[in-house]
Specification:
- α4 links the parallel β1 and β2.
- This protein is mainly α and 134 residues long.
- It has five helices and two strands.
- The protein has a domain of 50 residues.
Length: 134
């Protein structure tokens, strides 16, 4: 014989109330005081202002590059590329992110540096393999 389990409505309501009370308690604030005193170190403020100024300067450089204005790479990188005579590139399709225009500008400015693009439509996995093999 099987015994049919019957859950009266009051048990379901009680269970729902307990669940709701638990959720509200979990979302409550556990701080013991209404107002906490905060102190700020003036050195921290100065560091933050310096960091913000540097970030603004970096953003300006990034904005300049994004608008197509002249952006000069690090001279050490340029010298190394000229010495080696080639830079290895992968996954730079001409029709994405203006890679075609960027590469044409590079080729015009540095004609002595070869810059072939291996597998322009490569996947991320292909790129990782190329880093190890090129």
């Amino acid at each position: 014989m099987s015994k049919k389990t019957h859950h009266p409505k009051r048990y379901r309501v009680l269970g729902s109330l307990i669940l709701a009370a638990s959720l509200f308690a979990a979302c409550g604030d556990d701080s013991s005081s209404d107002v906490e005193e905060t102190t700020v170190d003036t050195a921290t403020i100065a560091d933050t202002e310096t960091t913000m100024a540097e970030a603004t300067e970096e953003t300006t450089v990034a904005d300049t590059a994004a608008t197509g204005e002249a952006c000069t790479p690090d001279q050490e990188i340029i010298d190394a590329a000229k010495t080696e005579g080639q830079v290895n590139l992968i996954a730079l399709p001409d029709n994405w992110a203006n890679y075609k225009g960027i590469l044409e500008a590079f080729r015009t400015k540095y004609p002595e540096v070869k810059n072939p693009v291996a597998n322009p439509d490569a996947s991320s996995a292909d790129e990782l393999t190329a880093v190890e093999t090129l």
